[in-house]
Amino acid sequence: MASTENTENGVKKIGILIEFENDKIKKANYGVITAARGAGHELYALVTDAEGVHCKAQLQAYGIQKIVLISLKKVSLEQNPVRQAKAIIKAMGHFGIYTLCGLTSPQGKDLLPRIAAAIDAPLVMDCLHVNFADGIAQKPQFSGKTIADIKVRGTHHIFGIRPNAIEAVSAPCRADVIPFEAHVDSKRLKIKEIKPGVSGTANLSEADIIISGGRAMRNTKNYKVLYDCAQVLNAAVGASRVAVDAGWVPHAMQVGQTGATVNPKLYIACGISGSVQHFAGMKTAGVIVAINIDPDANMMRNCDYGIVGDLFEIVPILTRHLMEIPEINQ
Amino acid sequence: MKIYVCIKHVPDSAVQITLTAKNRIDESVTFLMNPYDEHAVEEAVSLKEQVADSEVIAVTLGKAAALSTLASALAMGADRGVFIKTDDPPDGVITAKLLAAAISQDGRPDIIFTGKESIDSVGMQTAFRIGAALDIPVATHVAALSLDWVLNRASDQNRVLVECEKSGGDRDVIEMQLPCVIGVGKNLNLPRYPTLPQIMKARKKEIKQIDPDSLGIEKPLVGMEVLKLHVAAYERKNRIIKGAPEQAVAQLIKCLHEEEKVF
Ligand SMILES: Cc1cc2nc3c(=O)[nH]c(=O)nc-3n(C[C@H](O)[C@H](O)[C@H](O)COP(=O)(O)OP(=O)(O)OC[C@H]3O[C@@H](n4cnc5c(N)ncnc54)[C@H](O)[C@@H]3O)c2cc1C
Ligand SMILES: Nc1ncnc2c1ncn2[C@@H]1O[C@H](COP(=O)(O)O)[C@@H](O)[C@H]1O
To answer: Which of A284, A301, B101, B250 gives a 20 to 30 Å CA spacing to B242?
Structure first.
């Protein structure tokens, strides 16, 4: 029997939506698994697009006890979010999972609220921390200017966790792999095609290191100095809204209020003044570096390390020095 | 075609947020229409301009002050407004149920637009909850839209094709039958600025006020409650590295490598 405490016979079964990119488990999943571990918790990895994917070794290394491979009778999941959501709900019902977690990634933003709405469950997205015992999550609100403690009530609890918000720590165990077939349909919503984005545009929201350029970049071509540096650092390249609105780079690269929310270990802001709206997307970064000709720029006053100077001079020197560090050039 | 647009009255993203109680912000700051909702109103009004006999109805739930955001939507071209007035705005679960109930009470929607998220509470869920309440399909983070509309409203040929933004700029092209809910992202269009005559004309447009208690939504056992808000403080080291570029960069790398261990 389910109780409002969202546990069953003292065991809290937590389902974790596992996301893949190019047939590999996204690294950010391990932080979610780490967050979900706890005394009396039984962790279920819910895998919906696992055709030919090997994930057992990685998932059990982080403490997953059951791996549920969800497939659909006759049709493939086709990335159709309605089918995926319905199949996940069936799996949750079948295994008695009352708590569900995933990433606040583009996929998570489509699936988690779909599931929450369908089963009328409370949902908190973009969590920085979750206390599963009390059902309390912490998340940024008001453009990151406040952090809210939010209590969820209901038999089912659903949380979307901000990528990189929780550091992954391994905790090896043994996992069982359980195939699960669901019958679901999606009559009124169909995926017609998937249009690929501009190639080379990295997924900013899960990047470990980001180097961004703003108005100071002046054109598309100049972004090459950032790409060169990014290549050495294995970083993603971002931009301010000014650069996006000017058409120098695609919107997928915009960081901020109306762009991507990012949470990298290192954020290097080049020629970005540091508007409130830009900070709204990157203020939780681990370390912020500012490169700006204006020592009084807001980004300079709110960074960890700042260099006053022309980015077109500083960034190439940075790239050259980084190439000499053995640890990042293995 | 009947097009509903849900708009939320939110603090301007540029203002400073201070607290007046453990879970309340000081509301004596500038409030505006949620930025994504401006794109939603723009899309609704431009569809109305393409399809004869269309009506755009802006719907908001909030305190009395939210009327100014409703007025902005009317000035942008919405035909009338529905105002669910409450002195104590409820959580995302009840808000979506009230919005859905107010819309079905008002008329038969063909499309309901919302923003993909609100910039104050950042629930990221209202579109889906409205869709579930009315049992109609939902797509979110929509960056392009094209409509197939035939006159017979009951026709299942009435569809939209939308492009939903995914990671790295990929887009899913999704076909949905009407009625449906569309969560709008900022790439969909460029919102218009109303002219003074439009603002004046908007003052005469009808706003229907609804008491939430009249909508017959039972207070569910399910919900999200903000227990406490903390003003976020991010302590930054703020070390400005001086010196010639070569030395400054070397110093920076040393700090990042040895102290911060980011690589
Ligand atoms: C509703 C709303 C939503 C918004 N959403 C976003 C958002 O999501 N993301 C976002 O970024 N903005 C957003 N903005 C815009 C935001 O307010 C700022 O206008 C924008 O962030 C400024 O971009 P910038 O820093 O590149 O340009 P600027 O503010 O013009 O700053 C340029 C900086 O470059 C420096 N500089 C110039 N030349 C050089 C050089 N050669 N080397 C080094 N430094 C140099 C200058 O000193 C200056 O500090 C939003 C605004 C609104 C109203
Ligand atoms: N109180 C409200 N009144 C009208 N629309 C709302 C309200 N709250 C949320 N919405 C709509 O739902 C969208 C997403 O909000 P949220 O789910 O809070 O991120 C907003 O962009 C609005 O379109």
So the answer is: A284
